[in-house]
Specification:
alpha+beta, YefM-like fold, about 60% helix, elongated
């Protein structure tokens, strides 16, 4: 992976262009701290990445069910749950307060 500082990028943007044309990943830094990664354009990255992001967002908002997301991602429910979990998305929406109220009413 190449690294290019933001100041160097301002002075010589062709460095980034050459790296992208060579399909090399390039980390962009500011004061030696990473601020981003540049990758060459690839249709698969855009379609799969964007699609996954939109599906997960719709799932988090409650617009899609787990089954719908699984089918759209062409994964089993178990694989989808693992993917969501790895991305920090709650897989099960469980309200513990409802159980406490039920226990108290008994």
């Amino acid at each position: 992976m190449n690294t290019i500082g933001i100041k160097d990028l301002q002075i010589n943007p062709a460095k980034l262009t050459r790296a992208l044309e060579a399909h090399e990943y390039t980390m962009i830094t500011k004061r030696s701290k990473p601020i981003g990664i540049a990758i060459a354009f690839d249709e698969a990255i855009v379609t799969q990445g964007l699609q996954t992001a939109l599906l997960i967002d719709a799932y988090k908002k409650g617009d899609l069910s787990l089954g719908q997301v699984s089918r759209a991602m062409d994964l089993s429910k178990k694989e989808t749950m693992k993917t969501l979990s790895l991305m920090g998305v709650d897989v099960v929406d469980y309200d513990f307060k409802d159980d406490i109220q039920t226990i108290n009413s008994l």
